[in-house]
Structure prediction request, 179 residues.
Amino acid sequence: MQEKTLNEKNIFDGKIIRVHVDDIELPDGSKAIREVVEHSGGVCVAALTEGDRLFFVRQYRYPFKKELLELPAGKLERGEDPLEAGIRELEEECGVIADKVVSVGTIYPTVAYCSEIIHLFAAVGLHSTSQHLDEGEFLSVEKIPLKDAVKMVMAGEISDAKTVALVLKVAKLREEGKL
Prediction:
């Protein structure tokens, strides 16, 4: 069941996204239109202390007009290695480096119209350095016990998709003794 692109019309080329509208052919031969947001992808890191506390960032998110609690994350530059980006983002946002950073999978946060893929990582063996926030980036760092973070996810207090997925994955991996 594949859809064939017949024509692609570029609508917008921005700093973070590209938007195009495509004429397509459906598997049954009928025609349709797809609106697509292209994004270079991102990373999200669950930095877990020896005492089972996670590093979070609280950041104002303009589309929602409020602060959200999230695990440290960032956008991939085109062609950038996700692992290297995760290590970079953890230090930039939280002032932390890790002895070990492992992949725990990927997620597709908005499959209906966006190409973004977010690479998920867990980091252990943490050491403090210093934050190196990007220009125009404002956030505060918080450490929350893993079990409390799971409760916050289940209660809807944490609603950022990448954070929800990664908190639950890390909790399961920790429960199974794999992290």
